[in-house]
């Protein structure tokens, strides 16, 4: 019994990492007034590049670093489009998702001549605490959440960032450069998401696969709404949504063990759990949350 | 009538130029000859009319599924699952009844109902339609994969669902799709409900002042959009694939591509007829490119992605035109 709880807990911590990193990153971005729904694409692009770098260098930490850089680059693109070119942020995000998916698979096929997955790459070692094994990045993700909360709510620069998302005109009057703040908030948010994407490969799965992200970018978006744009709550949300993910993997294995029946087709049913549960949680909670007021609208100076 | 303004044409052209330029860079980096790839893409992509029309049918309809709600101010990214439910319900109705008409009707209704669900969650629970739609997309992806492999597997052909019985198979599906597009064009531009939808999309505030509820238009537009995608799924299985494979490769991705098609058609149902043909050619051509050069078919996804991103920034082109115009008048 204890062992089973430890397994579920360990799986939960493993799947919460990308949800917390991307969720907290997106909170920073959205608090400044920019929405980036291209998280899924950033996961794909950074997971792929992390796999490539780790494959050739054998160093998963280098893979992690490159994933972070790819995230920052993606943020630069989205920031430039959203802030300076006043583009439609939702459309740009959707386009980026398709572009990143296409590019990653193009790269996958031309490098490894496989249409499904990369060869296995080195992973970061897990930490062992008593009988519980946890990915080191889960501690980093929690720290990132706490630091982001402290930054947004307890520092003057955090206040200025939030002002850009609530009332950009007033922020400008206070002497804040709204466009620059929004641009950097988008870059930082995407960078954290890139870290989460690289983690999928070098911290968790150990290879790049076509379906490695599988909607996690959007679950991270749901986590943003769940958290009411509060990084501390995003940690809680990450654990909750991570638990759904862990159960979806754990439940069919457990049933198989206890009944002796081989489950193949039915495993598809269990895979709906994280998505359905996310939808239900968001439905129950959503009436009570409040998005930044100027979210998604380009700021046009007079 | 058909208002095609110069700005729209410029935006579409610019986005295509940027897309093919980026595509060229990607191909060179990956070590393929871009001229050869593009010539195969265009030669074979648009070579087989019958296949092109079949391929375009569901894409045209998911394009409408994106654009009609977009006109009313809703971002319907759920064309994907709306098409899935249309496909699976049509397949099952055809399987049990052996006739096409009830299958088409129920498939369309299933898509409409799912679209309405997303809209209702936005209107009554304030849930962002993007999140709802993606969660539903994945839920139905796995649920239908389960149905096809566990409950309705074809005992004779592995990895396939039961087939559509011969009596329920239909032809001419592209014309049904075109007819739908023309009907939607008429509804949007020549009826009161269409007018209300367009006003709600541009300014919900004005709609409220004019005395009608923009929320109702959100619901209506998602009903119409979902119906289009559901019809697309029904026509796809009844008129093209006659079955659904267990990995869902026959139906996966059509809803997402529909977003690009809607945008490229500038959310105009008539424009969407043409953009669906164009994009289908790219996708078919991409498959040929794979056969002939080994370059993966995801080249099409890459191009579509760049097209969509480029279409998100009309302001950039206006800025560009202004600069060019100024330089022209100064000289």
Would you give an account of this structure?
- The complex is a heterodimer of chains A (302) and B (331).
- Chain A is mainly α.
- Chain A is 73% helix and 2% strand.
- Chain A has a two-stranded antiparallel sheet.
- In chain A, helix 3 runs antiparallel to helix 8 and helix 10 packs antiparallel against helix 12 (273-285).
- The N and C termini of chain A lie far apart (64 Å).
- By secondary structure, chain B is mostly helical.
- Chain B has a single domain, classed as ABC transporter involved in vitamin B12 uptake, BtuC.
- Chain B is built from 14 helices and no strands.
- At the A-B interface, helix 4, helix 9, helix 11 and helix 12 of A face helix 6, helix 11, helix 13 and helix 14 of B.
End-to-end span of chain A in angstroms?
64 Å
Distance between the termini of chain B: 38 Å
* Annotation, overall tally of beta strands of chain B: 0
Percent helix range of chain B: over 70%
State the order of secondary-structure elements of chain B, H for helix, E for strand: HHHHHHHHHHHHHH
Number of helices of chain B: 14
* CATH topology tier name of chain A: ABC transporter involved in vitamin B12 uptake, BtuC
Principal-axis shape of chain A equals globular
Spans where pLDDT lies below 50 across 5 or more residues of chain A: none
Query: Could you name the ranges of chain B where pLDDT drops below 50 across 5 or more consecutive residues?
Result: none
In CATH terms, the superfamily of chain A is ABC transporter involved in vitamin B12 uptake, BtuC
CATH fold category name of chain B: ABC transporter involved in vitamin B12 uptake, BtuC
- Mean of pLDDT of chain B: 90
Total number of β-strand segments of chain A? 2
The CATH class of chain B: Mainly Alpha
